[in-house]
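Structure ticket #2291
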Amino acid sequence: MPAVDALVCFALYAANRTTAQAYRVLLEPWNLTYPQYIALVTLWGDGEQTVSSLGEALQLDSGTLSPMLARMEANGLLTRTRDRDDERVVTVTLTDRGDELRAELAHVPRCIAAGAGLTDADSARELIDALHQLTEAMRDLRDHPDTVLAAAGIPRPRA
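Resolution: structure written out below.
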């Protein structure tokens, strides 16, 4: 067994890459990427919103999000409209085609859940909750490394 197989970080990395590859296979017939798919899911669930609120929801910066939304707009999935009072604010709205994809892609979450061995809604919720808890813990480590190092009894290295 390679040494990296014993690392939590590598297990997460490998799971993330393989999950992204599974989504790629499922979304390929619609010429969609995973980030485009999650943008659609967000718009289906939350309705039209500003580019900045969509970026926050998807944890994507504007340098990544804007070109992606431009491609989706060119493909007829959504429209972007500048606010008349403040042109810095851009609202993203699904087109009819973008709305239609909701039914066409309804199988994707079920396929991912089945592929992950999640047999029911409770097992999916448990995994999602554990991943959210992990994300929050890693965010806390990122934002407050001294606190985590001190709790672990590890002195902060000097730069």
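Closing remark: The chain has a mean pLDDT of 93.
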